[in-house]
Amino acid sequence: MTAAGRGSGRPRRDAAPSWRERLDDPAEPLYTVGVVAELLGIGTQALRRLEIAAAQESARPSGNQRRYSRQDIERLAAAEALARQGFTGAALSRIIELERRIEASTDTPIRR
């Protein structure tokens, strides 16, 4: 009998990440609209407008409720900072898209 199928006769599947691994994962969508809006100090409608301008799609795991990861929050915070500087939604979209392209081509994150 192999170690992978010990006792069950079925091949062993990779185990799902533990809750600790999920909490540590910056890409794990854990935060609701209300929590993110509070963290960024903006209203929920402003957050939704930023999400549209930043072409940021939130995850919708269970209950069809939006969830954001730490990476999402960082991108939204950067978009919010640009909006505070007076950039329009269209300008935000373009700036963020150009930053994504630069990051993808250089493998270096853009820090503000």
Q: How many DSSP helices?
A: 5
Report the sheet with the most strands, covering strand number, pairing sense and barrel closure.
2 strands, antiparallel
Oligomer: single chain
Distance linking N and C termini:
56 Å
Summarize the helix and strand pattern as letters. HEHHEHH
**Largest sheet, spatial ordering of strands:** 1-2
Residue fraction in strands: under 5%
Unreliable spans are 1-5
Could you say which structural class the secondary elements and strand pairing correspond to? mainly alpha
Approximate helicity band: 40-55%
* Structural shape: globular
Q: What is the total tally of β strands?
A: 2
Walkthrough of the structure:
The protein has 112 residues and is mainly alpha-helical. The chain is built from 5 helices and 2 strands. Helix 2 crosses helix 3 (44-53), helix 3 (44-53) packs across helix 4 and helix 3 crosses helix 5 (89-106). The radius of gyration is 19 Å and the shape is globular. The termini are far apart. Mean pLDDT is 84; it is low at 1-5.
Q: Can you summarize this structure?
A:
The chain is mainly alpha-helical and 112 residues long. The chain has helices at 19-24, 33-40, 44-53, 70-84, 89-106, and strands at 31-32, 67-68.
Task: List its traits.
5 helices; mainly alpha; 112 residues; disordered N terminus; two-stranded antiparallel sheet; 4% strand
